Amino acid sequence: MNQALSTKFEVTDHVKNALAVSLRGCEELIPQDEWLAKLARSQATGVPLRIKLGLDPTAPDIHIGHTVVLNKMRQLQDLGHTVIFLIGDFTTMIGDPSGRNTTRPPLTREQIEVNAQTYYKQASLVLDPAKTEIRYNSEWSDPLGARGMIQLAAKYTVARMMERDDFNKRFKDGRSISVHEFLYPLMQGYDSVALRSDLELGGTDQKFNLLVGRHLQQEYGQEPQCILTMPLLEGLDGVEKMSKSKNNYIGISEDPNTMFAKVLSISDVLMWRWYTLLSFKSEAEIAALKAEVEAGRNPKDAKVLLAREITTRFHSAQAADAAEQDFMNRSKGGVPDEIAEVALPLGAGGAAVGIGALLKMAGLAASSGEGNRLIEGGGVRVDSSVVSDKGLKLGAGTYVVQVGKRKFARVTLA
Fold first, then answer.
1. Binding site listing
2. What distance separates the 2 farthest-apart alpha carbons in the chain?
3. Where would I look for the motif 'HIGH' region in this sequence (predicted)?
4. CB 297 within 8 Å of CB 304
5. In Å, how far are 12, 39, 128, 162, 401 from 20, measured between CA atoms?
6. How much is the pLDDT for 72?
């Protein structure tokens, strides 16, 4: 154990609970004995630990998969520790090569600033803004200068850098690795030196970079940080990691009804994984709920509670109530209270409009062809009746048109 942590402090029940909170759902906690010692020292001295999470604002929006690590930050924040939300405005200009087979193009300063503002606004739905320290790594990275960068680079070897899987594979495959990519883990590691962090969090794909931070802190004579990695959340399909490109995600800015319904769509097995990684309920509460389900309670009850919790977090309790009612209406074949109102013209001379064209014009299908395919699949209803005839034409009047479970429009043809 590090010499600075060699003084023994009592491991109280409070400290044991803090360790349990830290370990909940995590992939790795390295080294666990040092983290326990840090927790014990903090409890004995009353000095909160400094917990760092760095995010590069490479895209403007985040989904609930991204909030897994933010949830862990909130849990540790609620224990009284100092949470540092670090926006990597400097490192984003380098481009993080983690998990990449090719060089990631850097963003412009303007793109970074826009994304950073959106990131923090969204992260504040999970973290307590009043207790969150916001920092930008350009604060210390810009003043470092060429001399400081060379001195920093001297503290890490090329051999150690090439131990990283993505660099190693690209080198063996003959794919290019730019010299500036070696600077990324060094600069991320230097963030830990500048902030004197006690713990850094990240996804499993960030393990190498987090360990670089621990190494550099030792090089600069600091007590090294511990690292905690969180797993990547499986998406709605329960197989692939949550991703917009896989269309198995829930965006935290999605409307409440869609968010609630998407949570209800996950499997009963995946539900418990989501409870561990996304819920703020205690492990004891989750265990009690799981025992009730195993004893015969409908698992849908537990899923509704999870959907309500997630929807409330990103919207409000009132929005969650309305979303639950909306879901119940839809499941019974009912029509939601609020649906889009669409006014469309009849054909030339007042001719009726074909259902495929109507779906396209009402924004319920991308094209008439897609509308016809939806009809073939039994996914289209007009006034609650399933449409089976692709040749159906609708004359003047008002109709409630439904596509799938969640798309509705009240269409007036005149």
1. 244
2. 90
3. 57-66
4. no
5. 12, 11, 21, 35, 51
6. 94
